[in-house]
Amino acid sequence: MSALQLNRGGMDTDAELSDYWWERVKYYARLAIERVGYGVNVVKELLSTLRSDERWEMMLEFEDACPDKFAQLVTDAPQWTEWMV
């Protein structure tokens, strides 16, 4: 299990803020899943609106929620990890 997976729920220790953070990550993952069909630049643009921790968690959630579309993104944009910084 990665350090990111251990930290799911966000950086905040406050439960309410942590819940909000995680809901936000899941929301953005759903948006990314919906937008893969429009091209990798659309997903890249979405990622650019997030903090680094949110980007990584969003991609983990994306992969968990829809492995086929995540695989499509990775195939279409093998450099996707460069977008995460």
Summarize the structure.
The chain is mostly helical and 85 residues long. It has helices spanning 3-6, 15-35, 40-47, 52-65, 67-76. It has one domain.
Topology:
Blueprint lengths: L2 H4 L8 H21 L4 H8 L4 H14 L1 H10 L9
Please, could you describe this protein's structure?
This protein is an all-alpha fold and 85 residues long. 67% of the residues lie in helices and 0% in strands. It has five helices and no strands. The protein has helices at 3-6, 15-35, 40-47, 52-65, 67-76. Helix 2 (15-35) runs antiparallel to helix 3 (40-47). The longest helix is centred in the first third of the chain and has 21 residues, at 15-35.
Tell me the overall shape: globular
Count of DSSP strands: 0
Number of domains: 1
Summarize the helix and strand pattern as letters: HHHHH
How far apart lie the N and C ends? Answer: 21 Å
Mean of pLDDT: 85
Helix- and strand-based class? mainly alpha
Biggest sheet layout:
none
| Count, helices | 5
The fraction of residues in strands falls at under 5%
- Compute the CA-based radius of gyration: 12 Å
Catalogue the unreliable spans.
1-10
Q: Helical percent range?
A: 55-70%
